[in-house]
Fold this sequence. Notes:
By secondary structure, the chain is an all-alpha fold. Helices cover 75% and strands 0% of the residues. The chain has one domain (18-303).
Amino acid sequence: MAPSQNHPPEKAGAGLRWLPIGFILLQNTLYGxxxxxxxxxxxxxxVYSLLSVRYGIxxxxxxxxxxRRVLRGLRACSWRDWLLPSLCIGGAYVAGNIALEMxxxxxxxxxxxxxxxxxxLLAWLIDRRPFGRKHIPVxxxxxxxxxxxxxxxxxxxxxxxEVFALLTALLLAGSLIFGEKALTRVDPxxxxxxxxxxxxxxxFVCALVFERGIHLExxxxxxxxxxxxxxxxxxxxxxxxxxxxxGSLSARTVALLQCVCPVMTALFSRLxxxxxxxxxxxxxxxxxxxxxxxxxxxxxxxxxxxxLETSENAEDQVP
Length: 319
């Protein structure tokens, strides 16, 4: 299926908006389950070695199923269409893992989630896309909810680790903004494959630099099962669900819906790891779910997504 050259009908006010919302909620569920089960693997295996193999398996899976379609998709578009969303999503995972090695996980979780705020700001800076005032209270409450859920008691200072966590948030926002643009010219499967390849390349470089190669000698059968889950469900399905949703929802809405991810992580951590959530965490989760519910009932008002080629031509014109 060729990518649409026109503005997606959903953003023009059609009635199938609940399907892409379901895609992002499913993505949150897959990621939420992946976080606690991957903890056992990260405690034993080098991070970038694990990520390299994860993305390698995901890329082989995608090319085995959709190789010809991906090649056709790449020939039908320019490398400029997919470069920025691919670099952003690959760089986000690299920066996020560097942040985790340098500061507390609670700080990283909260600061990384600020992509919810950075996405509409980035959309305004890049495209001058309007941001309705009715969304501001929801956005502000979501930050409060994220702080209660992820950051309360965990923000002990601001150092280099926090800088990388904020960089992660900015790159995640960029992956949504530029991905939304790219999907006017690139189909979701092609973009997912290129983003996976970019993630693999960045993780492999980090493995060579920080870990001096790929080292999974200590991996057990359980670890390999976790890696396969992360590759197929969190990478292939996760990227594809996000790209499919961005064809119908604005990047801002997707970013806010992804606030459900830390809630799902907390839920599955309770079920899998027997971790408990404080009263503040429960309050934060309730606030986030309320914000997501409110946002899904609001009408999209971000306006049309500028085509990459159109944006470039506009920049070349002299007023």
